[in-house]
Design goal:
mainly alpha; 5 helices
Length: about 120
């Protein structure tokens, strides 16, 4: 953490950095790294939300719980749906299973997800 940075702010910074890295990886044609950075951005955004709300976030199951809670709080089911898309990006890193066009679409919806999760 940088000096004066809260845990929530740290995860928010990492999320924003990762989405920029994802765009660069995608532009360079490295879809595996781009997809994993998209997942990382979504995951760190959720960690930021959890830290801000005092929720546990160390485990994957904690973040799944948090994203469902956030979608319900904001009455916005698209938060959950885009999180599922981020999970598909994570799976792509291991399986190379998504088309390039799907990943290009995903970067835009991951950015929207970050905006929704990080909105205070």
């Amino acid at each position: 953490m940088t000096t004066g940075e809260t845990l929530s702010e740290r995860h928010e910074r990492i999320a924003n950095d990762m989405v920029v890295q994802a765009e660069a990886e995608l532009a360079a044609g490295d879809t595996l790294q781009a997809a994993e950075k998209m997942w990382g951005a979504a995951s760190h955004a959720l960690k930021s939300y959890c830290a801000r709300e005092g929720l546990r976030h160390a485990k994957y199951s904690h973040r799944r719980f948090a994203v469902r809670r956030l979608a319900e709080e904001r009455d916005d089911p698209t938060i959950w749906h885009v999180f599922v898309a981020a999970e598909a990006c994570h799976a792509h890193f291991y399986n190379d299973s998504l088309e390039d066009e799907t990943l290009e679409d995903s970067i835009h919806i991951i950015r929207e997800l970050l905006e929704k999760i990080l909105a205070k």
